[in-house]
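[step 3/7] inverse_fold.run input=structure_tokens len=363
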């Protein structure tokens, strides 16, 4: 997708996370604080010969809710935080980012193959089930979001994606203010079961794994940019292989989007002070980033790396959004000068990168 002709201004930010809202939560993350707890889901510990609980980063207000209700609670908390952080401004466009279901599809496919399903159309069955799941989620969440933000459901652009979905959504926006809402929960029972069935949760048998979390991010942006903190150089590419492709990580697609982002930011060498990525404890992500560094511009290899998943857990479609939120808050509150490179890698292989910078670094 093409880069936007002008930078986007970040005019408002709201967050629902295990650590709280945008100001308190991101400050806590910067301080190295994490708040995980034992969940009801369990995995087997062979050393103790017993089941032990999975750890997760839970949003307290979402406890007890499931499915679409959990998503709605998270969205509501993020919008409330947005209202506290910024004055209300008229918004002309709305985008809602939801999970693309890659984990559900992978877990379903693995279960069918393990059961030696005689059907010759496993992929077709999995795709139909995922399309039905998406439709049900949209039918329940979109009306709530529309009522909450004061628009009709038809006015909301719904996008299903992975960690890099926000970058794709920002890469080509129409002029005018837009409210972008990302919401995902890997603590919702079906998502948590899919994670454990695929062996992705950190636990006794998988010491190198991810700790699931949940979040909602409400980001108000405007084109053309007129704010103090801006997003520029957003670009995405679909990878040739994803997490479940069976292909070894090569990092080439990720390296290409990072290189494009730094090349489109004229002052990258002088202004970039940090990188914020979607590393989450998963060895596949780590190998992709490690191999990508070989093909990245030299400046990128010297940048300190901040991984929001260490504080908030793995948050699915909110991955890139949390990176943008951390970078923007650091600039606004004065503990991050210059600019930050934000990158994200989704399980389906899609990669994205952008730069969050203050106005002085762009001009």
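[step 3/7] decode complete -> sequence:
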């Amino acid at each position: 997708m093409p880069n936007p002709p002008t930078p986007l201004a970040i005019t408002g930010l709201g967050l629902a996370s295990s650590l709280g809202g945008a100001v308190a939560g991101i400050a806590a993350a910067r301080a190295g604080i994490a708040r995980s707890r034992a969940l009801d889901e369990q995995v087997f510990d062979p050393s103790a010969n017993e089941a032990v609980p999975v750890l997760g980063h839970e949003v307290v207000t979402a406890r007890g809710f499931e499915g679409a209700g959990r998503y709605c609670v998270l969205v509501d908390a993020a919008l409330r935080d947005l209202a506290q952080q910024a004055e209300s401004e008229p918004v002309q466009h709305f985008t809602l980012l939801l999970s693309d279901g890659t984990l559900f599809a992978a877990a379903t496919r693995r279960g069918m193959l393990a059961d030696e399903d005689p059907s010759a159309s496993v992929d077709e069955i999995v795709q139909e089930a995922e399309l039905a799941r998406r439709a049900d989620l949209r039918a329940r969440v979109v009306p709530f979001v529309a009522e909450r933000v004061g628009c009709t459901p038809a006015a909301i652009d719904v996008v299903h994606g992975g960690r890099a979905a926000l970058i794709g959504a920002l890469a080509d926006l129409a002029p005018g203010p837009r409210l972008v809402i990302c919401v995902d929960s890997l603590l919702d029972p079906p998502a948590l079961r899919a994670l454990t069935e695929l062996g992705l949760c950190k636990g006794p048998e998988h010491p190198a794994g991810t700790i699931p979390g949940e979040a909602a991010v409400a980001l108000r942006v405007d084109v053309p940019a007129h704010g103090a903190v801006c997003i520029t150089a957003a670009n995405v590419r679909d990878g040739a292989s994803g997490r479940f492709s069976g292909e070894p990580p090569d990092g080439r697609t990720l390296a290409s989007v990072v290189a494009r982002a730094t090349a489109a930011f004229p002052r990258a060498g002088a202004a970039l002070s940090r990188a914020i990525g979607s590393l989450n404890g998963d060895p596949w992500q780590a190998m992709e980033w490690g191999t990508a560094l070989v093909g990245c511009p030299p400046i990128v290899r010297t940048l300190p790396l901040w991984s929001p998943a260490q504080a908030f857990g793995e948050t699915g479609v909110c991955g890139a959004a949390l990176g943008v939120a951390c970078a923007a808050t650091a600039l606004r509150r004065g503990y991050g000068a210059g600019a930050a490179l934000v990158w994200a890698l989704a399980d389906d292989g899609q990669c994205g990168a952008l730069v969050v910078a203050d106005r002085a670094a762009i001009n």
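[step 4/7] annotate
Confidence is low (pLDDT under 50) at residues 1-5.
The radius of gyration is 19 Å.
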